[in-house]
Amino acid sequence: MKVTPTNIPDVLIIEPKVFGDSRGFFFESFNQQAFNEATGKNCQFVQDNHSRSAKGVLRGLHYQIQQPQGKLVRVTSGAVFDVAVDIRKSSPTFSQWVGVELNAENHCQLWVPAGFAHGFVVLSETADFLYKTTDYYAPEFERCIAWNDPAIGINWPVDETPQLSGKDQQGTLLKDAEVFS
To answer: What residues contact 5, with CB distance under 8 A and at least 6 apart?
Structure first.
């Protein structure tokens, strides 16, 4: 696998080796030993999640203030613009974001460490989004930062207001959010 740091070095783009021919393709989507060696991380994933969303749906910006989750995310069908926002107050990249297109053709994955808010918007008609987490979902600790917080200034590739869940419509501004020290 190829690992590329983003503008926030803790957030990594992971490109698996894809073997393809006229019959299709094969790639190893996850190997714990290879992940740890390539990234320098020693993570253990405890939960896999799968969501399907329609074009224009935006999910996020989510995080857990306790039981924080590192996430290894990918798309198996369709395309999304995936975003990670550093919400570690002591970090030199606090409040900065990185975004990358993940799609079924590029097979790329994004490593979003604990201490980051995460979200994505669907660019295709539908998208299947899969992610592994380093801790279990704990709804009592889940928080949401507003997707359009001007202090963060994410340049979402959308022409109109995205479709949001009720929970995501209630996202707080970063200045008012609980963040990591």
So the answer is: 11, 12, 13
Q: Which residues contact 108 (CB under 8 A, 6 or more apart)?
A: 13, 14, 15, 74, 100, 102
Per-10-residue mean pLDDT of the chain, 181 residues long, equals 95 92 88 91 94 97 98 98 98 98 96 98 98 97 98 95 96 98 94
CA distance linking residue 130 with residue 50, whole number of Å: 4
Q: Is the pTM of this model over 0.85?
A: yes
Catalytic residue among 50, 62, 118, 136: 62
The secondary structure of 146-173 as a DSSP string is -TT-TTT------SSPPB--HHHHTPBP
118, 131, 136, 137: the catalytic one is 131
- Let me know if 50 is a catalytic residue: no
Rounded Cα distance, 168 and 61, in Å: 8
Dump the DSSP string for 13-24.
Answer: EEE---EEETTE
User: In this structure, which amino acid lies at residue 85?
Assistant: V
Q: What are phi and psi of 168, to 5 degrees?
A: -70, -25
137 an active-site residue?
no
